[in-house]
Amino acid sequence: MSYQYTAEQSISGEVSSVYHSLASHRKKKSTNRLPVIVIIGAGFGGLHAARELRKANARIILIDRNNYHLFQPLLYQVATAALSPDDIAEPIRKIFKDQSNLEVVMGNVEQIDCDGRCVQMADGNTIEYDALIVAAGSRHHYFGNSEWSRHAPGLKTIPDALKIREKILRSLEKAELMESPEQRKPYLNFVVIGGGPTGVEMAGAIAEITRRTMAQDFRHIHPEHAQITLLEGMPRLLPGYPEELSEKARRQLEDMGVIVHTDLLADKVEAHGVQAKDRWFPARNIIWAAGNKGRSILQTLDAPMDSSGRIEVGPDLTVPDHPEIFVIGDAACVHKPGGGELPALAPVAIQQGRYVARMLRSGTPTEQRPAFEYKDRGMMATIGRARAVARVGRWKMGGAIAWLLWSFVHVAFLIGFRNRVSVMLKWLWSYLTFQRSARLIVGRNFAPKEESR
Amino acid sequence: MSYQYTAEQSISGEVSSVYHSLASHRKKKSTNRLPVIVIIGAGFGGLHAARELRKANARIILIDRNNYHLFQPLLYQVATAALSPDDIAEPIRKIFKDQSNLEVVMGNVEQIDCDGRCVQMADGNTIEYDALIVAAGSRHHYFGNSEWSRHAPGLKTIPDALKIREKILRSLEKAELMESPEQRKPYLNFVVIGGGPTGVEMAGAIAEITRRTMAQDFRHIHPEHAQITLLEGMPRLLPGYPEELSEKARRQLEDMGVIVHTDLLADKVEAHGVQAKDRWFPARNIIWAAGNKGRSILQTLDAPMDSSGRIEVGPDLTVPDHPEIFVIGDAACVHKPGGGELPALAPVAIQQGRYVARMLRSGTPTEQRPAFEYKDRGMMATIGRARAVARVGRWKMGGAIAWLLWSFVHVAFLIGFRNRVSVMLKWLWSYLTFQRSARLIVGRNFAPKEESR
Q1: Residues B210-224: what's their mean pLDDT?
Q2: pLDDT < 70 positions in chain A
């Protein structure tokens, strides 16, 4: 089966709405029109697929539940009050304003109808496709304990980050008002569950907030009252990284005062603390960075899934028996030729998005498609001010050099010129002054209601 | 009665917590300690009172429900996606980090106990005072129709602004997906109720969003589909300004395509539109900018109030029979010697805050205090890009000069160096590119919930 999207079909008159009521959907099915490529999700994978399709003679419809693309690698900086949401998010419409073959739909996909070749939206409407790219990302995985999410929020979205930011800032405010050190303690204890890149970054950033920045602003609490604990179930931090870097990361965190426990799985998460084996960690601030799972929309694809709910795709990233449906990024489970799976990283999603777009544009038939190959250029994680670890090809490094490299790469990748300048300025500012600039507790949920008199 | 706060009382050991359980509150009452000045509210009035007291030999406790000071004159720019919340808000603790006689308490005041000379907090704790400055600000006044607030949100707080921003951006997203122009129309109709400075600024800013910025990003909706209506119950816009400026403001708004109705009071506000006399204005976006009232906390002062629920204070801004309780800013109703009342403007609150602080520092007895006098340096309102009106002393001006003056004054007054630079850059950027930088729909209320599988 082939999808020749460089073909010369054309449409007359104004482009019709992408939305069809079910009735009109059935009627219009047979009329002559441009092929439609629907992309679900405007994360790294979806965004780069859409960009790579800019010259395709097709109608591209990019669906996302939000109106912005999120630069997720810096989300922990919003959670720890160093950046504002605007700094790491860019309106999708703005990114694509000059790509005339693309339309943006803000909405929630409820179901994928593989046989009917359409996507059902939560508002009852339907969007038809000829080819579909599923780049829906992932959610937190509480391994069957979804009630833990209430006490230990995870970090995937801007609302997640704002919730964590508020929780941390409110805890400091509460601790400041407490009369005795015993009352204060739980508010100044922080437990981060999960020692992957997000967990390491969060633990480091919290250590910086409490130990440096907050020291100046409060009268009754002092940096040495704070205690940050990082729990990892595996024998070392950053399990996907070279061992040497795991060790470097651990040492840098401990230098900053973080207490690191490896080989220690959380057994129970409650409002007041975490139980791990026979140890109880009392804390009012618990952050979940321990696992990802596929979004529930993937279940409607009726394709094989791994234990984390990701779709097991073929070498060309398609779903079995559906050469027109591609799954990429965190939503896909791709086995490496030598064993193991591709990691859930932005570069993987980006390369997959570009690969899929090339396959669609060239119209390569399924059986002739070359298998997707990930070009691994390296990986990095930041820990704090002038502290990071990085692997570039076979080079491994830690400390200030890794941190400079990390900063450079992340700013360079931030989409949109304004964000780059603004983030650069904020970092420079906070480097020079030790100040965090986005320390507002805005809290919709806590906002004062209109008073009744 | 006199409050000599330059006295030489001293305390020994560490400063105790400002919070007292009721029991300890009664016990500690008689011990030797520094006089305590409590300030409720860190708006313009409270902030400037606190600063002016930096050399007072007293313990100053500044209470606010938020952890930030809000630069309210620019709040409409957050509501219209030109600025982010961080740009116009500054953590209170950061502002006062070097003022050692001041402590910040983040919390809600539930009641003022004038006889017991203490403030009851919502969390059950109590804060004692020797002198009290009430700078609690105001809320929207729906004139007995509080159910309108659901359809026509007002603009006082950052959550208010984010709610309005989301409503506007979501409307455009919805309109883009509608199949017919009739379905689209209500989503592209905007009604602003109230033609004071906030209403004029909102109407102008919405005109700019819809007519310029949004024109580039959407495929199916066009700027000419949008309709912005401004309703004012009085015979002219900006009723507190010179008539000449009202006329100038109206002409500038109409140039931008805003439909202005004066002498037209809203009789009914519903989800789908506004009824005013015999006219029905269908609209999905309704914004309330029509009136202010005092916060309910003021009722616990048991002092005379005007029809808007503000406290009628004496010439020295105190409450009758309580020379130790001052009310300033939007919470106070001050009659001018020549008739009329002082307007609810930032400069009034600032001057009042400084006056009260001076009275407290010098310890002037009530009967010898000079009456508060407002030095009126002028007023201004902005309308759009290079459009504004201003009065400076007796000079009146409109257009680009007024706008430059407005920009200069507002940036100069923004507290905190970082904010100033960041706001300046954003303005320059949006002036050059016609882009609004903060167009994110973040919506806590609409945030996707953790999926259950």
Answers
A1: 82
A2: 1-32, 415-425, 427-438, 442-453
Find the mean pLDDT for residues B443-453. 36
Global pTM value: 0.85
- Give CA torsion, residues A91, A95, A98, A104, to 10 deg: -50
Interface residue of A179, A420, A423 to substitute, partner B, most B CBs within 10 Å? A179
**Residue B29 pLDDT class (50, 70, 90 cuts):** very low
User: How many A-B residue pairs are in contact by the CB < 8 A criterion?
Assistant: 161
pLDDT for B25 equals 42
Residue pLDDT, tens place only, A73-95: 889 988 988 888 888 888 899 88
pLDDT tens per residue, range B319-368: 999 999 999 999 999 998 888 899 999 999 999 999 999 999 998 888 89
Q: Could you tell me the fold of the domain covering B142-290?
A: FAD/NAD(P)-binding domain (3.50.50)
Residues 354-383 of B with CB under 8 A from A: none
Chain B CB contacts of A170 under 8 Å are 106
Closest to A308 (Cα-Cα) out of A321, A290, A320, A323: A290
Mean pLDDT of chain A: 85
Task: Give the start-to-end residue ranges of the domains of chain B.
Answer: 22-140+292-368, 142-290, 378-431
**Residue A61: per-residue pLDDT:** 97
The CATH homologous superfamily for domain A22-140+292-368 is FAD/NAD(P)-binding domain (3.50.50.60)
Distance from the B406 Cα atom to the nearest Cα atom in chain A, whole angstroms? 24
Q: How confident is the model at residue B259 (pLDDT cuts 50, 70, 90)?
A: very high
Do the first three CATH levels of B22-140+292-368 and B142-290 match, i.e. the same topology?
Answer: yes
- Return the residue of A nearest to B428 by Cα: A418
A15 contacts B219? CB cut-off 8 A: yes
Options A52, A90, A201, A208, the catalytic residue: A201
